[in-house]
Amino acid sequence: MDETKEPTLVTTFAALGDPTRFAIVERLLEHGALSAGSLQDVADISPPAISRHLKVLREAGLITQTVDAQRRIYAVAPRAVQAINVWTMSHADFWNASLDRLAGALNEVE
Q1: Pair 16, 25: CB distance under 8 Å
Q2: What is the rounded distance in angstroms from the CA atom of residue 72 to the CA atom of residue 56?
Q3: What is the pTM of this model?
Q4: Domains in the chain, start-ordered, CATH in brackets?
Q5: What pairing do the DSSP bridges indicate for beta strands 34-35 and 63-68?
Q6: How many other CB atoms are found less than 10 A from the CB of residue 56?
Q7: Binned average pLDDT, 10 residues per bin, the chain of 110 residues
């Protein structure tokens, strides 16, 4: 992906659809910026495989990479999380109506 282009939600959700990449983003959300070495244990895969997952996440705009001497430091890109939040909240009426229907159906069963 051309890094000058703004990532789309389709790209974002596709990247998050992989369990390893989702786990990486979850770890970064919980702990803040981390080195690649600190992310090795999110899955039972090789360091080169982790690097490939990090590349996909970078290209999707979900994480950023900075260089600190010989270490690569990764962090969640706030704009990506904000875009997911905006999309989710824009569909709040759908989710609320669905939950209301579910609650009604459950009440009828009781």
Answers
A1: yes
A2: 15
A3: 0.78
A4: 9-77 (1.10.10.10)
A5: unpaired
A6: 19
A7: 64 95 97 94 93 96 93 94 90 87 87
